[in-house]
Automatic annotation (TrEMBL):
Role, per record: Catalyzes the reversible conversion of ribose-5-phosphate to ribulose 5-phosphate.
Coiled coil regions in record: none
Name of the protein: Ribose-5-phosphate isomerase A
InterPro entries, alphabetized: NagB/RpiA_transferase-like, Ribose5P_isomerase_typA_subgr, Ribose5P_isomerase_type_A
UniProtKB keywords: Isomerase
A matching Pfam family: Rib_5-P_isom_A
Gene3D superfamilies membership: 3.30.70.260, 3.40.50.1360
Gene symbol of the encoding locus: rpiA
Organism whose genome encodes this protein: Moraxella caprae
Amino acid sequence: MSNTAHTDPKLAQKQAVAKSALAYIEDGMILGVGTGSTVNCLIELLPQVRLKGAVASSQVTEDKLRALGIEIFDLNAVGELDLYIDGADEIDAHGNMIKGGGGALTREKIVAVASKRFVCMVDDSKTVAKLGKFPVAVEVLPQARSYVARELVKLGGEPVYREGFVTDYGNVILDTYDLDITDPAELESTLNNIVGVVCNGIFASQSAHIMLKAGDDGVSTVK
Ligand code: 5RP
């Protein structure tokens, strides 16, 4: 067995973009914190800032924040958040995103919609002219899985059941390839209207307000 550790080729960019996101965090804030490997780089830096606490977008993120001694708040108890910081699987020039590669899309969308500003941190592999190479995660109530899959096929998609994965809410995910995402907001709404769908990974109604994009030459800001 090889003992060579797997290294993420984008790790340096993820660390750089996470560092630049710290500038958006204000003293005493309750911060909305996303999920994923880019966010993990941010979480490692959070002891450098003075937060009142955080609202977590997944159980994994919540556990990591608690391990650092950061207080976790229930979203219902705190009202609107000033800031949500998260990553994305794809993002276009308008801030529309595909998220959900880590399966936390529903809780991420809830925290995003309850926040005034969404700062999205990406490395240079995530920016696209048109969304859709990355599959759209569709979170589905377990009993509706086959029905929703047939509806996704009617829309031109190719749904793949994410085997062995259960969301924080006890649901399943259909990773859907080949959808035509010419109009992200329209498709987001169409997918939400399928009975049995809990949420989908197109974030157009909750697009990012600010994109921080890391490249080999540093981090650029797109507003
Ligand atoms: C998890 C997400 C993540 O934000 C997205 O998958 C990006 O993750 P990473 O930073 O690991 O590339 O939506 O549900």
